[in-house]
Structure formats: C-alpha cells, structure tokens
Write a structure and sequence with these properties.
The protein is of the alpha/beta class. It is built from ten helices and seven strands. The protein has a single domain, classed as 3-Layer(aba) Sandwich (Rossmann fold), CATH 3.40.50.150. Helices cover 31% and strands 19% of the residues. Strands 3-2-1-4-5-7-6 form a seven-stranded mixed β-sheet, sandwiched between helices. It is globular.
Length: 287
C-alpha cells in the first residue's frame, strides 16, 4: 500500500476524527485500486492531489529509491507510486528466505523480493483492502510467480504463524496504523529468531499537534499518523527488538511537500529507513 496516492485529496468534510482511522484509509486505497481498468491499468495522476500530482510514475518511483532496472522487472500496474523508499534495497534478502510485506498494495515490493529470494523462497503480501489484493494477485499471475501470495488482513493482526518469516518489509504503511505498538508486536511474533525488520516509513520531526493527527486527509497521506523516531524506537524495544537503526532521508522532503500542497504539516515529517532484529534464540542447558 503506502501513502503517495494519485487521486484527489479528501474533501474538507472528510477532515476530523473517525470511529476507526483505518476505515478512511481503507476507503481511500480502495478507490485508488478501483481507478485502474483494463483499458487504463495505471491510476490517473491528479493535479495537486494528496500524495500525488507530480510527473510520471517512473520518475517518482526512482526518486524514492527504485532503479530503472527494478521498475522494468515488474508489471506497470504494480508500481502505483505509493511508497517513500525501497525496502528491498536495504533488506539484504537471500535465496530461499521467507519474506512478508506489510501493506503490499499493487505488489511491487513483493515482486522485487521474489527476484531476490528465488523459486526456493516465499513472499507473502498482506493488505487490508480487497481491491488491492485482487490487483496484486492479477499482477502476480502475469509474472507467473508461484512463490508469491497475497493475503487479506490487517497489519495489527497478521495472517501468519508464529516464528515463520525470515524478513518483514514495508513501504510507507505502518504510519497509517492507529496502533503501532500492536503492529511491532505482531511483526516480532511472526519473525523467526534472528529475523529482520527492514522498512521504509515516514516519521515525524517533532510531536504532531492534535489538529494534524485528527485530520483524516493528512492521516491518509502518511502525515497525520507519523510518530517521532524516539517513540518508534521505544515501541520497537517494548516489542522485543534489538539492533535498531534509523536512517533519515533528508532528500525526501522534496517529494513529501507535494503530498498536500494545502498544508504546512508535510514539513513536519521525513522518510526513514528503519532496521531492527528479533534476537536469536538463547541456548539453555537443562539442570
């Protein structure tokens, strides 16, 4: 999934609090997926839209970290311009590994991960939007990737078994969750001992005001739900993670400011690469 969508921003009437913040996010990304048709597989680029409105998708995707070679490897419909980085570039994926992508959207990161883990590996994409799951499955069928599957589910309640995944990746999705502590706890649960957490996400430069946090449009375009690195590190440690590393991408300010030209709040966030590890099992001796 991700934040940099290519359709018009939510109307002023949509601003304000919601019973479940995920409902507004789910509706927004369902609309993005539905905008693609057989005759026009790419969502149209809207002028001045939230998280959109810049030039061609290829240029935007290369701007957040994808190479031209990587973009040429995936179906055009898989690159929806929704990310703020390239998690497969930092994950150090190896042949045969099992990878799970939080908020997989059209599937671009799953397909790039599949190339790295090979036929002996497995890639699982999880998204809470049925329309996105349908789109990603259609893209996977075009590529004939039997080791890639997409599952409907929420990142706070992952459809995966305990200690079953080598690497968890994500691209500008966790900031959309209203319960990030639960997300990190779920990631920790499904990772194997020694497993890696490697994501690109938007974090806040400072604690955001209640006004920014309660704006549905800002939450849906990856601004209103952002936490500071200090808060995220605390949540990761509480979940059990170690070896936590944050890498700020200062150049991301240039494209983030396009996400909502009507709000100064975009200046309060920045894209980061975040890495952490689930500790390896500690051997214990009997008696």
């Amino acid at each position: 999934m991700g934040c940099c969508d290519n359709h018009q921003p939510a109307s002023p009437s949509s601003a304000g609090s919601a019973a479940d913040p995920r409902d507004g996010v789910r509706q927004r990304y369902a609309q993005i997926a539905q905008m693609a048709t057989a005759d026009n597989p790419e969502p149209p680029i809207a002028e001045g839209g939230c998280c959109g409105g810049s030039a061609a998708e290829d240029r935007r995707s290369q701007g957040v970290g994808y190479s031209a070679e990587e973009l040429a490897m995936v179906p055009r419909e898989a690159d929806m311009g929704l990310g703020c980085g390239n998690p497969t570039a930092i994950a150090g994926l190896q042949t045969g590994e099992i990878v799970l992508d939080l908020g997989s959207g059209g599937g671009i990161d799953c397909f790039l991960a599949a190339e790295k883990v090979g036929p002996s590996g497995q890639v699982i994409g999880v998204d809470m939007t049925p329309d996105m799951i349908s789109r990603a499955r259609a893209n996977a069928a075009k590529l004939g990737l039997e080791q890639v599957q997409f599952r409907l589910g929420e990142i706070e309640h992952l459809p995966a078994a305990d200690s079953s995944v080598d690497v968890v990746i994500s691209n500008c999705v966790i900031n959309l969750s209203p319960d990030k502590g639960q997300v990190y706890a779920e990631v920790f649960r499904i990772l194997k001992p020694g497993g890696r957490f490697c994501v690109s996400d938007v974090l806040a430069r400072e604690t955001l005001s209640d006004e920014v946090r309660s704006d549905v449009a800002l939450r849906s375009c990856c601004v209103g739900g952002a936490e500071t690195p200090e808060v995220v590190e605390q949540l990761l440690r509480e979940a059990g993670f170690t070896e936590i590393v944050f890498t700020a991408k200062e150049q991301s300010a240039d494209y983030i400011k396009e996400w909502d030209a009507s709000s100064d709040a975009t200046a309060l966030v920045l894209s980061y690469d975040i890495m952490a590890r689930k500790p390896a099992a500690v051997a214990t001796s009997c008696c």
